[in-house]
Design a protein that fits this description.
mainly beta; 4-stranded antiparallel sheet; elongated; 5-stranded antiparallel sheet
């Protein structure tokens, strides 16, 4: 286990009696380490569209940061909207949510809006955004979900310590991202 995935030969023997003449190859792999495991993809980046399926990938890694090549790990994933705390000193954030994709002024305004929004007090919604977790059986897992509306969201990804691996939040978790429509509904 010091050198990562290995293959050994296995024969069946009980006491002095040998029950097989041939050996079978058996591979084993080091277990997942949450602190080395990563996530990537459009589903955790700013600018995804509401009401359209998006996804991100979890790449399980061992303590040496080597990619795992088999599945069956268990993850707890919670995706929730970040709701703004309403105070009299702070106005609403979503006034400019409908932006044109190629409008430079809109992009600058969105950047300023995001900077302002990050200074605002936010709390997590009680409602979870439904998601699917697909085990690709090669050390990768695909998380698919649909954000219901414009706004800021947080995805928390925790490895649950399957096979006595190191449990906890994966690298970078929680992920905060902005869901915003780029459709011009005034046209």
């Amino acid at each position: 286990t010091s050198y990562g995935p290995s293959e050994v030969e296995v024969t069946v023997k009980i006491g002095p009696n040998r029950f097989t003449n041939n050996a079978l190859p058996f591979s084993f792999f080091s277990v997942t380490d949450a602190s080395q495991t990563v996530a990537f993809g459009p589903g955790i980046l700013d600018g995804i569209c509401p009401k359209k399926e998006t996804s991100f990938v979890i790449q399980a890694k061992d303590e040496s940061s080597n990619d795992r090549v088999c599945g069956m790990d268990k993850f707890k994933i919670e995706i929730r909207e970040l709701l703004e705390e309403h105070t009299s000193a702070i106005g609403g954030v979503h006034h400019m949510a409908q932006l044109r994709e190629n409008n430079a002024i809109g992009i600058i305004a969105a950047t300023k809006l995001k900077a302002r929004a990050m200074r605002m007090r936010r709390r997590l919604s009680e409602t979870l955004v439904p998601h699917e977790l697909e085990d690709c059986h090669d050390g990768t897992y695909i998380v698919k979900f649909v954000a219901p509306q414009n706004g800021y969201y947080r995805a928390e990804v925790n490895f649950e310590g399957t096979f006595q691996g190191k449990e906890g939040p994966i690298q970078g978790s929680p992920f905060t991202f902005h869901v915003v429509s780029t459709d011009d509904e005034t046209a």
